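Annotators were shown the component list below and the corresponding predicted structure, then asked to write short factual statements about the assembly.
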Amino acid sequence: MLRYTLTRTVQALIVIAVMSFMLFVIIGLMPGDPLENMFEGNPSLTPELMAQMRELYGVDQPLTTRYWNWVTAALQGDLGYSSLYFRPVLDVLFPAMIQTGKLLTLTLLISIPLAMLLGTLAARKPNGLVDSAISMFSFAAISLPNFWVSLLFIILFSVQLGWLPASGAPMRNDAPFWQEMYHLIMPVAVLVMFHVGPLIRYVRASMIETLSADFVRTARAKGLNERRVLIRHALRNALIPMITVLALSFGHLFSGALVIETIFGMLGMGKIIYDAIANVDFNLALVGLLLAIIVVLISNLLADLAYGFIDPRITL
Amino acid sequence: MNELTATAQFQRSPLPPAVSIWRLRAEKFATHRVAFWSLILLILLVLVCLMAWPLSQYLGIDPNKTNLLGRFQAPSAKHWLGTDELGRDVLIRLLYGGQVSIAVGLAATALMSMIGIAIGVTAGLIGGRVDAFLMRVTDVLVALPLIPLLIVLGSVDLTKLGLSATAADSPIYIFLRIVIIIALVDWTTMARIARAGTIQMRERDYVLAATVSGATRIYNVFVHVLPNISTPLTVAATLTVGRVILLESTLSFLGFGIVPPTPTWGNMLTNAQQLIFSAPMLAIYPGLLIFATVMTVNFVGDGVRYAFDPRAENEGR
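Structure shown to annotators:
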């Protein structure tokens, strides 16, 4: 167990190091150079002065030197400034992480029970009427473009009916809790729909397999009622492998969050990364992406470790 | 009935005609009703999209020509679905956009299948450290968020890679660029399936026999391994097309995929968000077409899986 945790942690560190270099190279290939945002707002800068500043910031140095400078500074805790917000990148990213955290937590709290419920209902009578309806729903959920669903929701619930706000977050930072939740209804609904499709199909398949197991037949033979068999005996066992599926879905979920935060104008990680890339804020894009990747990798690792705890039959 | 007549009858009954595996699969596919009708709808969709050029000639419309005096026109005899915020014909742009989206879907799926199969077969065939390394890379890539990575890759300035500015802005390079970046990040499913199949095949007696007779690895791959794992690969490829169309439309919607004036269903929705008060219909059509295409492709994929899998016999549809 300890050995496994250590190996996985070291592997994750290697991945992060490699990814940081690859992203550094790719982001360096974005149009313009890192100082462009600073020059833009200042017409009095002469070309000589610009060249001088490039030299001062080390932008004219070769790629490997620049990467090495960035890594040594980053490891000492200096992740640099955002040229878009004129603030240290971490000051920009921490509130964004909290915003995205709220969105993703709420989504998971709804989509996991929903997938369990619909998947189990579908598995009770494979190819029955209920199963066909749920199957149709999960296929539709997988095939729907999430940005289009967001637009439709805004048109229907904000423009036509006027029930819900078109933005995913209140204007004021100190808005009361209920108001924040009110703004989150539509983004969470779209993200749940985006996330739940594959999960339902997974729970269904897993449940159908479990329901044909011997211990389920024993439970039924003992005369237990069907609900107890389904929930206490079958579902609990069918859910164990779902942890892996959930862990793998975090990256997918973050992709969805980026699109939804952009449409609903929420300043979460996804929107910050999107804005940083669209406005060539090199440093913010780099640190934001790395942070997102680190969070995804850590959640993956935790899910893998949880696997061993929940099912003692599995030795890691 | 005595024995003699029974024998005679047996002799008289003609041999059943030889049926090819493809015919059996096609018949089984047709029994999957949803998949069958999805295939019909999908073929219709493609045919209608291919009508873009003839229809634009017939109606005398240039899909990229802006007409600021004719913005937001209602549907008419000339503009069947009206015009958009720049006075361009919505229908013709939708049809051209469909061609682009479907072409990206097919091209990226073809390219990523090649990448995935090459990596998967290499890992499965060589094994050991190479296998462990390639599969670790696959595991990591599966877990990463694809959309942010695609946005970064989509924002790369091709002139910094030594391409001339005119070439970098040409529609062909923009098309190729999105095909390549999607293939680069999404080959993992293919690689896993190819690897699993290769490992199974590697241990088969006839492959061992071929090796003993002096067959090279390359020969074994093309003659013994690939034909035998083609079924799961075909199924995975079909399902991939739908995912690629979704990825492309998302990227184009966000402004990092195919950029105007070339229309795609994704980038036609980009401006629609600002226009939901004045022209909500502009936000309806492209999304509906993406949904219909992806949904039918996914159902066809499900049908292909059902038809190709000999064990999926008892599922009455």
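Statements collected:
1. The mean pLDDT of chain A is 84.
2. Chain A touches chain B through 50 residues (CB under 8 Å).
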